[in-house]
C-alpha cells in the first residue's frame, strides 16, 4: 500500500502509543554491556552454559519482561539469585543511560516534536518505572508525551491488558507502534491498527500481522 493511501486510512487517528526499546530507543547500546555482566555471573554459577554472548543472541531479550532472559537461561536457579542478577543488570543499564552511552534512533526527537503538535503521544513499555522515567529525562523527550506507562506499574501484566485498562483515558482513534510480537498482539487484541518497526529488535515474522511497517522512525511523518 502506498503512503498516501495509508495517510488516508489514518486520518482519524488522535492518539499514538509507542513502545520504547527498539522503537524509539536503540537499547542494545546500553543493554549489551550490562547484560554481558549478568551472563558472566550466571556462567560463574554454572548457568547459561550453552549461551553464546553476541548482540544477535541478546537482542531477542529486548522488549520482553525483565525476568524473561533469566527464566530462560537459568530456569533452575533460585528466584532470589535470578532477581539479584536481574537487579545488577538493571542498575548497569541505568548507569549506561546516565553516562550517555545509549541513544535514540536517528530522527526520533524531530518526529516526536512534530507529531506531538497534532496527536496525543503515549509510551507503553515492558520495563521498570525508574528506567523509563530516567531515560525520558536524559534524552529530553518526556515533554512530548501525554503519559508514559511502564509495565512494572501494572505488575508486568501483558500490554494488551494495560491498554484495555487505560483506553478510557485516551482519545480514539488509537494506533500502536512497536517492534515486538507482544506489541502487535496488544494492538490486535484491542482491535487497534499497528505499525511494526522493522529496524527494531523483533525478527521480521513478529510483524506479520501488523497493519503497516516502517523501516525508520522518520517514516511516521510520511504516513501521518
Describe the structure.
The structure is a single chain. This protein has 224 residues and is of the alpha/beta class. Helices cover 42% and strands 12% of the residues. It contains ten helices and six strands, in the order αβαααααβαβαβαββα. Strands 3-2-1-4-5-6 form a six-stranded parallel sheet, covered by helices on one side. Strand 2 (120-125), helix 7 and strand 3 (147-150) form a beta-alpha-beta unit. Helix 2 (28-44) runs antiparallel to helix 5. The protein is globular. The two termini are 14 Å apart. The relative contact order is 0.19.
Structural class, judged by helices and strands?
A: alpha/beta
How many helices? The count is 10
Could you tell me the mean pLDDT?
95
Helix content: 40-55%
Q: Ranges with pLDDT <50 over ≥5 residues? A: none
What is the chain-wise order of helices and strands? HEHHHHHEHEHEHEEH
The proportion of strand residues reads 5-15%
List how many beta strands DSSP finds: 6
Largest sheet: 6 strands, parallel
C-alpha end-to-end distance: 14 Å
Radius of gyration: 18 Å
Shape: globular
Strand order of the main beta sheet, please?
A: 3-2-1-4-5-6
Topology:
Elements: H1 3-9, E1 15-18, H2 28-44, H3 55-59, H4 68-73, H5 79-98, H6 108-115, E2 120-125, H7 129-138, E3 147-150, H8 159-166, E4 174-178, H9 181-189, E5 193-197, E6 212-214, H10 220-223
Helix pairs in contact: 2-5, 5-7, 8-9
